[in-house]
Write a structure and sequence with these properties.
Residues 14-30 have a biased composition (Basic residues). This protein is an alpha/beta fold. It is built from eight helices and eleven strands. 30% of the residues lie in helices and 18% in strands. Strands 8-2-1-10-9-11 form a six-stranded parallel sheet. Strands 5-4-3-6-7 form a five-stranded antiparallel sheet. The chain starts with a helix and ends with a helix.
């Protein structure tokens, strides 16, 4: 009988120890995700596969949704000088940036921040990304995205629209049309007040708070940035010109709180981004040397002839999640 009790206690102890270990690993992974900063750089030619403006708009919503799913913090659009659109008046990079910004913005703010533009003519075909900072009226959260509106206020104060029945008065004089992240003093109060904060504050408290989007026309500026812990180049094909080899496994990053730069070159050669940038006309060896790792998707590794860029992005981001 005593031996039976000892076995029972031993099993109970082992179960509790496993549960404690599992909980500790989950907390560690959650903390790593909250502290991680993921920057993605992609060529504007990523939209080249879309055969019509309608399909192009729908594709943009798929991209934005993917960035939200994997909690991407920053998106950099590189001008691909090898890609020539059908219309010379069509600015590819600006189109990509404007649509990604539109999709990242909560619905109740879009009419304040986005005037009518031909790049946004098919927004009705876009799926909402439903990011966690796209809050509904009935959802209570200590943070809210807002925009300063033109409304009379006393002293150094401003009124901010945050998608609720009541606007918020803040003790800061800001220009109308300015987008701000607010920390609400009491989200359940009838008289809402708040303080402008960084979106990073929301992330540090466990909320994914969207991504920023910029255009980078000068490739050398991206290569020279020193605010990343690790730079990784992801290529579509194995290149004979690539001098750097690696045994790098993306899953190694799954629990590391790093500031990452992930450059997806797609089908393009890395030199396609440097054509109009004299300062970054380096040799391939020099360019590859700027990255800590080069990860390549081979053509024979999958059941299709060629992986598309967005498919590579999804697979890679999933592997580091």
């Amino acid at each position: 009988m005593m031996k039976s009790n000892q076995n029972l206690q031993s099993k109970k102890y082992n179960t509790l120890r496993k549960e404690k270990k599992k909980k500790k690993e989950q907390q560690k992974k959650k903390l790593a995700v909250e502290q991680r900063h993921v920057t993605i750089a992609i060529p504007d030619s990523i939209i080249s596969n879309a055969q019509s403006s309608e399909l192009r708009s729908y594709f943009m919503s798929q991209l934005a949704r993917m960035f939200a799913i994997f909690q991407v913090d920053e998106v950099i659009i590189l001008r691909d000088y090898s890609y020539i659109p059908k219309s010379k008046q069509f600015d590819v990079a600006s189109y990509v940036v404007r649509n990604l910004q539109y999709l990242e913005t909560p619905q109740y703010l879009r009419k304040y921040l986005f005037p009518i533009h031909s790049d946004l003519k098919n927004v009705g075909l876009m799926n909402p990304i439903e990011s966690k900072h796209h809050l509904l009226t009935e959802q209570v959260c200590p943070f809210r995205e807002g925009v300063v509106v033109e409304r009379p206020s006393k002293g150094d104060t401003s009124w901010v629209e945050i998608g609720l029945k009541r606007q918020v008065l803040i003790n800061y004089p800001l220009q109308p049309g300015t987008r701000v992240t607010l920390r609400l003093d009491d989200p359940n109060s009838t008289q809402l007040t708040g303080t402008p904060v960084s979106s990073q504050d929301a992330k540090e408290e466990g909320y994914y708070w969207g991504y920023t989007v910029t255009i980078e026309s000068k490739f050398h500026r991206l290569l020279e940035r020193d605010d990343f812990d690790m730079k990784i180049l992801i290529e579509t094909e194995k290149s004979d010109e690539a001098q750097q080899t690696t045994t790098f496994n993306p899953s190694q990053l799954s629990q590391q709180p790093l500031k990452l730069l992930l450059l997806f070159s797609g089908l393009q050669k890395i030199t396609d981004f440097t054509e109009n940038d004299e300062k970054s006309k380096l040799s391939n060896e020099d360019i590859y040397g700027k990255f800590d790792h080069v990860y390549r998707y081979g053509n024979n590794d999958f059941g299709v002839k060629q992986l598309r860029l967005e498919e590579q992005m999804f697979m890679f981001l999933q592997s580091i999640q």
